[in-house]
Amino acid sequence: MRQARWIEHELVPHFPLGTSKGTLHTRTVWYLLVEDPERPGITGMGEAAPFPGHSLEFPAEVRTKLLELCADTAHWEDRMVSDLVQVPSVRFAVEQALRDLEVGGTKVLFPSEFTLGRQAIPINGLVWMGDQNTMRQRLREQVEAGFATVKVKIGAIGIDRELEMIEALRSEHGPSELTVRVDANGAFDPGEVDRVLDRLAALEVHSIEQPLAAGRHELMAELCARSPVPIALDEDLIGMYDLQLKKDLLDTIRPQHIVIKPSLVGGWTAAQEWIDLAEMRGIGWWITSALESNIGLNAIAQWTATLGVTAAQGLGTGRVFTNNIPSPLHVDAGALHLLPERAWDLAPLLTKKA
To answer: In this structure, which of 17, 41, 49, 87 has its CB flanked by the most CB atoms within 10 Å?
Structure first.
């Protein structure tokens, strides 16, 4: 019978990660490790990374499920379609761990031109919230680093200052040169959002993620119908585990795009379901990480590379941590690369106690 254990790990960012829902100074993730006694020396690994302020999961719930999984490894496949559906980050950790065990613990989960180092995934640069001068500097750094698409977090320091910053950026880089996305994380009230959207449209912004708080489906539907800027649902996808609920959400709101975070929706299988539903309705989509360590980011990136994406994906977050796990992942010139010649360094993690 398989044997399993789990490890809790605290990631430390290079700078406070600001969003409209608060600032992260540390980030806790959990690793699920599974072994088959008949294949000694091989360990499959997956990462559970619920996102504070966004996930519906609580740390205590994650720990409880991991304890249960490690106590009984015989029924993981069955649990992935039963109780683990309600704990999406843990479900994704199981999905990853079993896949990694199957491929001999190599972390090459989806062999492709990407894993061979021959093809990269286009990604957006990400500008976290901060004071106006800090955000301006971060924007310049992303452009100078070669990103053709940048995503700016808005809704925390005052929309007028944030719009001024985007206006200054646009004066230097037109829409044919630089694609600008913004992410509001539900920051705006219905009474102010139209003014914001009009200003963003004048600046030829590509899209806005979640302008209204999640759960306000009728208001969001009305907004999607009249908005001069394409709207992408993000937080509204979280907690939609049932297929019919997903269909109803997309049919009610009719967004122009959806943003899919595998760690928050339940892994590759659940993410593919969202993609299929979106494409049937002519809704655009892209894949985004959720501040996982390189274990989870690698799992998301390798799967994304099999989807034939050409637009920028949100997979550049691995660089924000001071103590991320050394991996073959590498960001260069606005793209995520996997360098096969670079080895994983898992020793410090694997010797850590649960």
So the answer is: 49
